[in-house]
TrEMBL record:
Pfam families: PTE
Name of the featured protein: Phosphotriesterase
Keyword Metal-binding: yes
InterPro entries named among the record's database cross-references: Metal_Hydrolase, Phosphotriesterase
Entry similarity comment: Belongs to the metallo-dependent hydrolases superfamily. Phosphotriesterase family.
Keyword Metal-binding recorded: yes
SUPFAM superfamilies associated with the record: Metallo-dependent hydrolases
Superkingdom assignment: Bacteria
PROSITE patterns: PHOSPHOTRIESTERASE_2 (PS51347)
């Protein structure tokens, strides 16, 4: 089953999916660019639905303004399945006074949000909401797994072993995918999504990660991370040619107010379908498009929930 904010659904029900995006996101690294407007989030999600979108994975973890209390209503209003994240980002995204309380009993926090319900960001030890997380999001550092990442990876692995959940990993600058798989000791690569690979378009590690069994996340264009947009289709073509079509996931990764179509300069969440998916269809055909947007997400977020 896939765990959405409105309850568990069969994988086949997920539909055309944005495998990595943000409706809400507030980072200390992006002051003044917070995604914190529920009305704009709803407009963005409705536009995504109008473009044919049916499912979206929001990778915003604990403590980054994910507005957990709004997610179920947004999902219902737009008619889009939402998969919410627990987990923890890099330390630099948090003010110290926010991060320090979250680090106590980290694995237990992840597991509780997966099995009991999300907590409000301002009340991480409060009563659970009815909406539960459906993935764990953690983050590596540039070409390494630093001390903070090692701690969050250990907690994510514990949550996986307790529940079977998929682990989604922010690769800083798209780097260190093989090191990340090694650091998630005991977690099958097939339960790991490696995000931001488009930011470091080195085809060798991409193929090795695919051969190990991981899902490969190519997300963007985001206004904040667009330097390698022009290499995206080269990377996709190489992986298709080497037989890894069934491991590729695509997402919009809208992380800033300026990048939102509904209230900023865009291109926003709908662009993933109106432009990227349209080009996938044109360049690679409907079978590949269905793999990227329909079948692969259904498998990537499917969990044999143990709790």
């Amino acid at each position: 089953m896939i765990r959405t904010v409105l309850g568990d659904i069969a994988p086949a029900a997920l539909g055309v999916t944005d495998s990595h995006d943000h409706l809400f996101f507030a980072s200390a690294k992006l002051p003044g660019q917070e995604l914190d407007d529920p009305a704009a989030a709803e407009a963005e999600l409705r536009a995504f639905a109008a473009a044919g979108g049916q499912g979206l994975a929001q990778w915003t973890p604990m403590g980054l303004g994910r507005r957990a209390g709004h997610l179920a209503a947004l999902s219902e209003a737009a008619g889009v399945h939402l998969i919410a994240a627990t987990g923890l980002h890099q330390a630099g995204h948090y003010p110290p006074e926010t991060l320090t309380p979250l680090l106590n009993g980290l694995a237990e926090r992840f597991i509780a949000e997966l099995t009991e319900g999300l907590r409000q960001d301002g009340d991480p030890d409060g009563a659970p909401l009815s909406a539960r997380a459906g993935l764990v999001k953690v983050a590596g550092d540039f070409h390494q797994v630093d001390r903070h990442a090692s701690m969050t990876f250990e907690a994510a692995a514990a949550a996986h072993h307790a529940t079977g959940v998929t682990i989604a990993v922010h690769l800083e600058g798209g780097t260190h995918p093989l090191g990340v798989l090694k650091a998630l000791d005991g977690v099958p690569a097939s339960s790991v999504i490696l995000g931001h690979l488009n930011r470091f378009p080195d085809l060798g590690p991409h193929r090795e990660a695919a051969e190990a069994g991981a899902f490969l996340g190519f997300d963007g264009p985001s206004r904040a991370n667009h330097a390698t947009d022009w290499r995206l289709f080269d990377c996709l073509a190489a992986l298709i040619e080497s037989g890894h079509t069934d491991q590729i996931l695509l997402g919009g990764d809208t992380t800033s107010a300026a990048g939102r179509a509904a209230s900023g300069g865009g291109p926003g969440i709908p662009y993933l379908l109106t432009d990227i998916r349209a080009r996938v269809l044109r360049d690679f055909g409907p079978d590949v498009a269905d793999a990227f947007f329909l079948h692969n997400p259904a498998r990537a977020f499917d969990t044999d929930w143990q709790a």
